Amino acid sequence: MILLDGKALAAKVKDRVAREAAELPRKPGLAVILVGEDPASRIYVNGKRKDCAACGFYSEEYALPAAIGQGEVLSLVEELNGRPDIDGILIQLPLPGQLNEERLLSAISPEKDVDGFHAVNVGNLLLGRPGFRPCTPAGVMALLDEYGIDPAGKRAVVVGRSNIVGKPMALMLLERSATVTVCHSRTRDLAQICAQADILVTAAGRRGLITGEMVKPGAAVVDVSINRDEAGKLHGDCDFEAAAARAAYITPVPGGVGPMTRAMLMENTLLSAKRRQNLR
Ligand code: NAP
């Protein structure tokens, strides 16, 4: 069994991004908008700031009060859309209930949508056109590539159909010619379907959902989920020991997909900076 080491690959990706960024006439710039005090979101935003510093990017953070109105956030997004030094705009999710997430994400210029959540970028993915790909599934694809796991012709099963992980993951595997099945909470015979997967990507957010018998011997298993136990320890969806005993490749949690998501945000911001400086 080989561990798919996302931490190591993320470090490699960020090193390359930093080298490429240093050669640009203008540094890539990322603006991050955080609304409210959600502790997990704060940790993610701090991570993004550190990553920007490590890659030599310019970054700005807007920590807005939880009770802020839709109009004020919208004005900020519009101002950032017009800023020549900002290549990427990111709104940290989840947002407080009074804000309309869909409208705010749609307000980000698709050219600066480095999270890849705008309908234009989702449409580009569906149509197989260039655009920003969502960071988590892009990170999974980079991990598979790094370890020489070619999805072409393989049976891939994705557990989860969210807009940020499951759906784009399925499309990206399809784009690479896998035969893809998408499972969700209404799926019957989940165990039987998973057990046929050459590539199993799980993103249900349910600790213990994937047992050893659900892993086909020799499969590549990518566990996207982050489930925190009472002691604060992180777990994926897989019963790791049992899954690892059957899999040929498996991601650890933590240290698998999480660091790759962060690295892909830097990759997307670099790509945006290149495009906006007419270098790509
Ligand atoms: P989400 O929006 O809650 O979606 C979960 C999906 O899993 C839904 O489609 C749901 O089905 C499905 N599901 C739930 N229980 C299931 C079950 N028992 N059997 C089969 N399918 C089931 O979550 P998300 O935002 O996609 O995130 C998924 C997980 O990945 C979370 O643990 C999250 O923390 C983690 N995550 C990690 C990263 C990273 O960088 N590593 C990034 C993003 C998310 P329905 O659609 O039918 O409800």
Task: Looking at this protein, list some descriptive labels.
280 residues, alpha/beta, Rossmann fold, 2 domains, 16% strand, globular, binds NADP nicotinamide-adenine-dinucleotide phosphate
Briefly summarize what is shown.
With 280 residues, the chain is an alpha/beta fold. Helix content is 41%, strand content 16%. It is globular, with a radius of gyration of 19 Å.
Rounded radius of gyration (Å)? 19 Å
Label the structural class: alpha/beta
Major sheet size, sense and barrel closure: 6 strands, parallel
Distance between the termini: 39 Å
CATH architecture assignment name of the largest domain: 3-Layer(aba) Sandwich
| Number of DSSP-assigned strands | 11
**Subunit organisation of the chains:** single chain
pLDDT average, as an integer? Answer: 98
Fraction of helical residues: 40-55%
Instruction: Give the cofactors and ligands.
Output: NADP nicotinamide-adenine-dinucleotide phosphate
The number of domains: 2
Uncertain residue ranges: none
CATH superfamily of the largest domain: NAD(P)-binding Rossmann-like Domain
Assign the CATH topology of the largest domain. Answer: Rossmann fold
> Would you list the SSEs in sequence order as H and E?
EHEHEHEHHHEHEHEEEEHEH
Spatial arrangement of strands, main beta sheet? 1-11-8-7-5-6
